[in-house]
């Protein structure tokens, strides 16, 4: 057994408030839903849980609100073994994602950042923690200022940075310059480059970052790097998908664990693909993420 590597996640925690309906309401309309669930989520927290379950020592930097949701969000992270010592509790509400899922599996989402919006800069404690890490995982659900600062702090200390550019938005050069590995899905790759072909988009992104993995849903993923001429494609395991929420977060979290363990990229991509395929076979985002034993069994 490899000794655990150390990963810091600088990212969001949200309570997902999910209503299941036959058909989403139009403006001004009221419809009766079938079911309602509250599920701990947020891209940062999801990646933290995925990485911790995959066997890393994971710490989370972010914020929850001083409310009922905040207690549950922190508790869910603790339960998965994520260190929450530097997860702040701030006045006001926790982040929430208001999600309507229709019978065709389509969804519409409103994210209200709440406490996440208060994390605008790093504390000395945050910097000291990043200093000890093997990798820093980042997404774009915290204010951009702190994401830029975090990536810069990691780069200064020689800590590997892995960025999921979601939700899609244009990225400042100072963030791209301090990103080692960018992990967009197809839509985000297109949003960043204006190119619809994922391979062309990935190649274009090499102008700004040294390594890119584009995730392609059930079609798997595509890897390109400045220092290797050939792209690498890894097909996804063929499984019956029931809920693909947070597949990308599982993928990014587990990929980072495998890379910090020193696994070569092809092997790390197989780990990430196996874990993401396991997660889509069950309902729920963070609740469906596999533990290391299940990932190892799937790979065997
Ligand atoms: P996101 O969740 O960010 O939209 P993707 O949909 O590209 O990202 O999914 C991320 C990864 O999850 C894929 O690269 C793949 O490995 C895995 N995955 C997603 N959907 C499926 C599926 N239906 N079957 C197997 N693996 C899947």
Bound molecules: adenosine-5'-diphosphate
| Structural class by sheet pairing and helices | alpha/beta
Number of helices: 10
Enumerate the strands of the largest sheet in spatial order, edge to edge or round the barrel: 5-4-1-8-9-10-11-12-13
Q: Indicate the radius of gyration in whole angstroms.
A: 18 Å
CATH architecture: 3-Layer(aba) Sandwich
What is the first-to-last residue Cα distance? Answer: 15 Å
Provide the β-strand percentage band: 15-25%
Give the proportion of residues in helices.
25-40%
The number of strands is 13
Instruction: Give start-end ranges of low-pLDDT stretches.
Output: none
Shape: globular
List the secondary-structure elements in sequence, H or E.
Answer: EEEHEHEEEHEHEHEHHEEEHHH
Walkthrough of the structure:
It is a single chain. By secondary structure, this protein is of the alpha/beta class. The chain has a single domain, classed as 3-Layer(aba) Sandwich (UDP-N-acetylmuramoyl-L-alanine:D-glutamate ligase). Helix content is 34%, strand content 24%. The protein has helices at 43-53, 68-79, 124-131, 144-156, 173-176, 186-193, 198-205, 247-260, 265-279, 292-299; strands at residues 6-10, 14-20, 35-41, 57-65, 87-90, 95-101, 107-112, 135-138, 160-163, 181-182, 211-215, 221-225, 228-234. The strands form two sheets. Strands 5-4-1-8-9-10-11-12-13 form a nine-stranded mixed sheet, sandwiched between helices. The protein has a four-stranded mixed sheet with strand order 3-2-6-7. β9 (160-163), α5 and β10 form a beta-alpha-beta unit. α1 (43-53) packs across α8. The longest helix has 15 residues, at 265-279. The radius of gyration is 18 Å and the shape is globular. The two termini are 15 Å apart.
């Amino acid at each position: 057994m490899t000794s655990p590597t150390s990963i810091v996640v600088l990212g969001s925690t949200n309570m997902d408030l999910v209503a299941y309906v036959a058909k989403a309401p139009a403006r001004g309309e009221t419809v009766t839903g079938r079911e309602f669930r509250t599920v701990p989520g947020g891209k940062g927290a999801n990646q933290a849980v995925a990485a911790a379950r995959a066997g890393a020592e994971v710490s989370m930097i972010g914020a929850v609100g001083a409310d009922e949701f905040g207690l549950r969000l922190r508790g869910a992270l603790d339960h998965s073994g994520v260190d929450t010592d530097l997860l702040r509790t701030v006045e006001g509400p926790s982040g929430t994602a208001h999600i309507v899922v229709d019978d065709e599996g389509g969804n519409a989402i409103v994210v209200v950042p709440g406490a996440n919006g208060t994390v605008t800069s790093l504390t000395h404690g945050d910097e000291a923690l990043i200093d000890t890490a093997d990798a820093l995982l980042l997404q774009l659900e915290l204010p951009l200022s702190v994401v830029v600062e975090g990536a810069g702090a990691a780069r200064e200390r020689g800590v590997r940075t892995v960025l999921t550019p979601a939700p899609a938005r244009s990225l400042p050069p100072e963030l791209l310059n301090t990103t080692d590995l960018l992990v967009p899905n197809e839509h985000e790759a297109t949003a960043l480059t204006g190119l619809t072909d994922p391979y062309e988009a990935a190649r274009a992104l090499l102008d700004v970052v040294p390594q890119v993995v584009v995730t392609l849903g059930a079609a798997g993923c595509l890897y390109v790097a400045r220092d290797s001429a050939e792209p690498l494609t890894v097909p996804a395991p063929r499984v019956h998908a029931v809920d693909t929420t947070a597949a990308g977060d599982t993928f990014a979290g587990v990929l980072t664990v495998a890379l910090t363990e020193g696994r070569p990229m092809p092997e790390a991509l197989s780990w990430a693909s196996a874990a993401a395929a396991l997660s889509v076979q069950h309902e729920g985002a963070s609740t469906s993420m596999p533990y290391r034993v299940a990932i190892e069994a799937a790979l065997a």
